[in-house]
Amino acid sequence: MATSNGAKALGMDDTLGSFEKGKKPGWVQVENVVSRDRLPEELVIRHKA
User: Fold this and answer.
1) Out of 7, 9, 26, 39, which residue is the most buried by the measure of CB atoms under 10 Å away?
2) Using CB atoms within 10 A of its CB, is residue 17 exposed (0-12), middle (13-18) or buried (19+)?
3) N- to C-terminal Cα distance for the chain?
């Protein structure tokens, strides 16, 4: 999972990076539609870390 590897690389995997009690997963939800007319940051619906 991308979020856990990123947290491990930053040395923060004890508090971030997975869906476990007491941790913040760094959840990012994106649309399931690929469009060349929209920038990647426009596809992000919400970000809650």
Assistant:
1) 7
2) buried
3) 16
Quick: pLDDT tens for 10-29: 788 888 878 788 887 766 66
Residue 30 sits at φ, ψ, to 5 deg, of -125, 155
Range of the domain at 10: 2-48
Round to whole Å and give the CA distance between 20 and 8.
Answer: 15
Among residues 28, 20, 32, the alpha carbon closest in space to that of 46 is found at 28
Residue 27 tokens read as 């959840």
- Number of domains into which the chain is organized: 1
